Amino acid sequence: MTLEFNEAYYRRFYKDPSTRVYDQKRHAKLVSGIVGLIEWFGLELTDVLDVGAGLGWWGQWLARHRKGVRVVSTELDRHICKKYGHRQADVTTFRLDRQFDLVICQGVLPYLDATGAEAGIENLAAMCGGFLYLEAITRDDMKDAIDAHRTDLRVELRPAAWYRKRLAPHFREVGAGLYAARRAHLPFFALEAPPEK
Question: Are 62 and 48 in contact (CB under 8 A)?
């Protein structure tokens, strides 16, 4: 099945109050929290990459609250890219020859088959010099974390362990969807991040 991430998709899952999971105001709390944690850990954001940026909520929040931050955003649909100012790109093949302080990948990888998701993780890791924020619903989430009536379930429901195994060579898991790039050599207190195995 070929999925289209067009206006109809964003209307249903992001705009329509009767079918969306949350609105932009609630999403702003997520962005504020993640950015606050990154700054708490001592990293000043200057360059951000938002892969699968959709309606551009991350970029809009950053433009309002972190005015000096440069944001590169990508999306698949040509019309969505034109409307919201994104670069048209596919995470399975997209890799810039630079690193960003924060790479965002929210709700993208579960739409890919295993090969595509693995390629996407490798590309995200190559472009991440600080932190990765990753949201990917998993099989583990289906028990009590997902509202099946408001969530697009046309995805690959892999175990969370599948993602963690592929992220581990490149990232240290901090929590709340936040991963620190190993190349950044960021120090954490013992209770700020799970101990390394």
Answer: yes
Residues 6+ apart with CB under 8 A from 122: none
* 50 exposure class (CB count in 10 Å sphere: 0-12, 13-18, 19+): buried
Which residue intervals of the chain are DSSP H helices?
7-10, 24-40, 57-65, 78-84, 114-127, 160-167
Selection from 24, 21, 60, 31 nearest residue 177 by Cα:
31
Domains, the chain, in order of start with CATH, read: 7-184 (3.40.50.150)
DSSP 111: G
The residues that bridge with 178 in the sheet, in sequence order, are 133, 175
Could you read off the pLDDT of 100-132 as tens digits, one per residue? 999 999 999 999 999 999 999 999 999 999 999
